[in-house]
Design brief:
Layout lengths: L2 H23 L16 H13 L5 H12 L10 H7 L4 H20 L1
Helix pairs in contact: 1-2
Length: 113
């Protein structure tokens, strides 16, 4: 199993538990504004963002265009354009923070137990 697959498995397992809880706590919007659906799942977006921090690229644009779009096209066959992906990043802020806290708490428990 590659490190990308392992990372995706961890993130996807987290998202399967987290997303229903997030939907329960969201306020219901009275206005039914049409939102464009995402091609990638939350776990796929988070995996790409976390992988960026694990690689040695200086900026995200070069990472996305030179690495993800070239080398990971098979793993993510429906990659959106760079601009579209950037528009989705703010929606991952809360899930990413909760995921990192979850990982940090897990590491702290394993060190001190």
């Amino acid at each position: 199993m590659s490190s990308l697959e392992a990372l995706f498995c961890y993130v996807d397992d987290f998202c399967r538990v987290f997303e229903p809880k997030l939907e329960q706590t969201r306020l219901s919007a009275d206005n039914k504004a049409r939102k464009r659906g995402k091609i990638l799942t939350l776990s796929e977006i988070m995996t790409i963002l976390i992988a960026f921090h694990q690689n040695h690229y200086r900026n995200f644009q070069h990472f996305y265009l030179d690495h993800v779009c070239v080398h990971w096209r098979q793993e993510f066959p429906q990659l959106p354009s760079y601009q579209r992906f950037i528009e989705w990043i703010p929606s991952t802020l809360i899930p990413l923070c909760v995921y990192w806290k979850h990982c940090f708490d897990f590491c702290r428990r394993s060190i001190f137990s």
